[in-house]
């Protein structure tokens, strides 16, 4: 029966349930200043659209619900609404699920399908009685210092997440995605944590290998939160002797492929590297990478207007919407629309009560005048 309801109707039902439980969160009115409205009015109809999906664990159910609302309103799939989708951690899972093709070449899954993942798989991935998985002192205690540190027992078993991704995405490569995709991962090199965007859209020969990277593996690596899940290893043509702090850390072209680009860089053999969640090296918010690091994806459109539609989480249970515009040196403009969904810092809370509270809180966002004006300006 719920399949026939609009996302808003579904949220209304949840809201009614939450009134009984007392779990609903309050939200004041969302308003946009005149400057933001002026920017929205100036967005050209043909602007390139980039979707940026932030990490946030189980809070991703709210991002999926927002994307479901956009699909419902537009009558189009998310993959057909955006020219590039970038995600990290739970955002990478959404990016992969929403862009994997079916047998007809169209998106295999909808945002509603992605939303159901959090309800069906969340309790398996983040059980409330999370205990060390028996993998030994495998996880990093703290990666945010930028340096390797002591290992600690992992809190959860990553097998349910891995199994879901393989079953859902199969062995489809990133290059087969319905639209361009970029996924943030962290590579452990020389006792440091290096950010790498695995992307199909990059024109850089440094990243030529990533086009054949399996979608499930990219999303899996990007979701290996520390110290929740045990790190994994992957073979990459990455030079560990690169100078720290350089980007993209001398990712070399793969021998035998992209031969037209190999002439610029010495082909390097594959090497095994430990990899974890992209958030662990500062890639939790892809919009920062998209704008501040001058990514090749956006540079390719440097003379065209670009809209970066960012979905993240405020962790204060209060929604926030901001609109900003940047004039680029080589022409064109980039409009950054940041929507921070009111959530909490309980990113591993998989209880249906918490997920329902998140979705209930979403209803005030999508029904707000501010969101309606953003939607009209972008879509």
> Cα-atom Rg, whole angstroms?
20 Å
Query: What is the overall silhouette?
Result: globular
Number of helices: 14
> What is the number of beta strands?
11
What sequence of helices (H) and strands (E) makes up the elements? HHEHHEHHHEEHEEHEHEHHEEEHH
Question: In a nutshell, what does this entry contain?
Answer:
The protein is of the alpha/beta class. The protein has helices at residues 7-21, 34-41, 60-74, 78-81, 90-99, 111-120, 122-125, 159-169, 215-222, 259-262, 286-292, 296-299, 352-366, 369-378, and strands at residues 48-53, 84-88, 139-140, 151-152, 180-189, 192-199, 232-236, 271-277, 306-313, 320-327, 333-341. The protein has 14 helices and 11 strands.
Describe the structure.
The chain is an alpha/beta fold and 379 residues long. It is 33% helix and 18% strand. Strands 1, 2, 5, 6, 7, 8, 9, 10 and 11 form a nine-stranded mixed sheet that branches. A two-stranded antiparallel sheet has the order 3-4. The chain is globular.
Ordered list of secondary-structure elements with their pairings:
Blueprint: H1 7-21, H2 34-41, E1 48-53, H3 60-74, H4 78-81, E2 84-88, H5 90-99, H6 111-120, H7 122-125, E3 139-140, E4 151-152, H8 159-169, E5 180-189, E6 192-199, H9 215-222, E7 232-236, H10 259-262, E8 271-277, H11 286-292, H12 296-299, E9 306-313, E10 320-327, E11 333-341, H13 352-366, H14 369-378
Parallel strand pairs: 1-2, 1-9, 2-5, 9-11
Antiparallel strand pairs: 3-4, 5-6, 5-8, 7-8, 10-11
Helix pairs in contact: 1-13, 3-6, 3-13, 5-9, 8-9
């Amino acid at each position: 029966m719920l399949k026939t309801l609009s996302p808003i109707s579904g949220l209304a039902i949840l809201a009614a349930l939450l009134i009984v439980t007392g779990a609903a969160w309050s939200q004041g009115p969302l308003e946009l200043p005149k400057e933001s409205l002026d920017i929205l009015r100036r967005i050209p109809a043909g602007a390139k659209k980039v979707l940026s999906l932030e990490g946030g664990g189980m809070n991703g159910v709210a991002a999926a619900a927002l994307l479901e609302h956009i699909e419902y309103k537009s009558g189009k799939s998310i993959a057909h609404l955006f020219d590039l989708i970038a995600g990290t951690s739970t955002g990478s899972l959404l990016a992969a699920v929403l862009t994997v093709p079916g047998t007809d070449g169209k998106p295999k899954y909808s945002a509603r399908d992605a939303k159901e993942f959090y309800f069906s798989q969340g309790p398996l991935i983040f059980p409330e009685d999370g205990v060390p998985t028996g993998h030994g002192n495998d996880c990093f205690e703290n990666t945010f210092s930028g340096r390797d540190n002591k290992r600690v027992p992992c809190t959860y078993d990553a097998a349910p997440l891995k199994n879901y991704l393989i079953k859902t995405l199969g062995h489809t490569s990133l290059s087969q995605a319905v639209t361009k995709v970029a996924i943030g991962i962290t590579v452990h090199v020389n006792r440091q944590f290096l950010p790498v965007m695995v992307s199909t859209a990059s024109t850089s020969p440094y990243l030529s290998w990533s086009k054949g990277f399996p979608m499930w593996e990219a999303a899996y690596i990007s979701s290996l939160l520390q110290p929740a899940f045990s790190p994994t290893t992957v073979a990459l043509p990455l030079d560990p002797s690169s100078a720290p702090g350089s980007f993209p850390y001398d990712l070399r072209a793969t021998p035998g492929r992209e031969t037209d680009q190999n002439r610029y860089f010495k082909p390097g053999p594959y090497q095994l590297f430990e990899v974890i969640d992209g958030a662990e090296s500062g890639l939790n918010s892809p919009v920062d990478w998209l704008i501040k690091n001058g990514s090749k994806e956006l540079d390719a459109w440097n003379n065209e207007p670009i809209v970066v539609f960012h979905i993240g989480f405020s962790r204060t249970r209060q929604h926030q919407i901001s609109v900003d515009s940047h004039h680029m040196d080589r022409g064109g403009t980039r409009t950054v629309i940041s929507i921070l969904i009111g959530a909490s810092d309980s990113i591993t809370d998989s209880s249906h009560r918490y997920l329902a509270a998140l979705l209930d809180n979403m209803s005030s966002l999508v029904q707000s005048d501010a969101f309606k004006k953003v939607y009209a300006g972008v879509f």
